[in-house]
Amino acid sequence: MIGDSLFTESLAQMLAEAEKVQVVGMAVWPQYDFTAVTQTHPQVIILADAGQHQNTATTLLTQFPDIPIIQADLNRDYVQVITSRRVHARRTDLLAAIRELVAGG
């Protein structure tokens, strides 16, 4: 989890109390460390107070394309889940990916 606010602390506490959820690391804006992500191998990266750090998700997704990113913000009534998917550069694969996305996949 990346963030530095009371919201981040509350979110971390909520997750610590949840069954089958383990917070494997915490980092502070903007001093988060890619090494920590590499060492802890999280299944998800949570960006708390994401509205304040718009470019961080893009940077993390570029560095760790296989790890989903959840953006949570106290001022929003939703969370945003960002994932990345690589497809072969063949024309048919690109067209299939476009069709799947348009269909809601």
Concise synopsis of the structure shown:
The chain is an alpha+beta fold and 105 residues long. Helix content is 39%, strand content 10%. Strands 1-2-3 form a three-stranded mixed beta sheet, with helices on both faces.
Characterization of the model:
- It is a single chain.
- With 105 residues, this protein is of the alpha+beta class.
- The chain has one domain.
- It has four helices and three strands; from the N terminus they run ααβαββα.
Describe the structure using short key phrases.
single chain; alpha+beta; three-stranded mixed sheet; elongated
Low-confidence stretches: none
Category from helices, strands and their pairing? alpha+beta
Strand residue percentage = 5-15%
Overall body shape: elongated
Compute the separation of the termini in Å.
Answer: 27 Å
Q: Could you estimate the helical fraction of the residues in percent?
A: 25-40%
Kindly state the number of beta strands: 3
Radius of gyration: 16 Å
Overall mean confidence score, pLDDT: 85
Whole-number tally of structural domains = 1
Largest sheet: 3 strands, mixed
Task: Give me the strand/helix succession.
Answer: HHEHEEH
The neighbouring-strand order within the major sheet is 1-2-3
Number of helices: 4
